[in-house]
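Bit of a strange request maybe. I'm writing a small parser for structure token strings and I need a real example to test against, not something I typed by hand. Could someone generate the tokens for this chain?
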Amino acid sequence: MSNDKKVSRRDFMKGAATGLCVGAFAGMGLYSYSPWAYSRLPKVQRKLEDFGACRSVRVTNISETSWFNNAHLIGDIHEAGGLLVNQYTLNWAPFANGKGSAKGSYDEAMATIKDLIPHDLEKAWEIQKGLSLHPENPGGYSCLIEVEALDGTITKYLLDTGWSYEWMDASFKREGIDEMLKAHEIEALFISHEHWDHFWGLPVTTKYDPRIPLYVHDGFYKEGLQYIKDCKHTGDLKVIKDPVTRIESGMALLKFDVPIINRVFGETSLAFNVQGKGLVLISGCCHQGILQFADFAYTNLKYDNDRFYGIYGGLHISPFEDWDPKYDDLVISLGKWGFERIGCNHCTGHLTAKKFIEAGYPVVRGTARFRSASKDYLGNGDKIAFGC
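Reply from user aminoacidic:
Good idea to test on real output. This should exercise your parser:
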């Protein structure tokens, strides 16, 4: 250090966030913390926006296994030209036309299945599997969030809707999501970002409830917006433009403008104020970076005890288990926020979850069922509760 001044918690984390650099495919983890993803976090006055409070939040992991083979996913992206290639041209189902790597076409692919979705997803997926690269690799990310209001009323939401029609339909049925959707018990679907593993399984949701309100970041590309129409969605489409959108008392949607690999832009994440406990953060992939996510919430939101209580979701640290020593800074930095309950999976990477456990963090462990790879994180079918 150039002086003897004491380093604050926020300054320490900003230094960790901006001190990382991007590599090649290791950069698929580092990317979210690099200058390409966001510039140095500015020092600002805390706004402390009051968004109310709730009694508890419960999360059911429907699926965190977005793909089943890292080598196939990385290899396909590399062969197509790298991290900046448009995801709709990769020739992955359901946007494959059979012409090979980097020759995919949204229009050509949809012409093969448009008349089948969402009512005959089995046939649609079989057609696309025959045209796509590594058709058995897609899975998906999706979770059910149940918010208990202060009066005891429970409201249900979906965060993301996965990728593979086949895998996600089975996962929805396993957790009873299909019946909840049919009964209109789920208030809304939030799409964290436009990536294949969080968004492309949309017809599995619209198959059961086409009128469900849908929230998306305003950085969606024309293909993504057209796909919503092609999936026969008939409900309200809420395109989020504001940094903070209150959903209900104690629940807010946070918007991050950040470039993401494969020509995707922007991510939304969720924040909850659990009465008497503090702030809970829930993310799909957290491409904005866990440090920016936490710093934004700290700067902008008012929450009980001014304390970070819990975090859940993909934290995008080592999604391909490609540990880099620089990730250790992120592990250390997360500890500075003092979370009391940590539920991680998906692109957090199970090596990262193991590092959290070794560091003594309060990680809620899972059962490694339904093709999830590790008990060190919350796998498919596992649950976590905050405030119950």
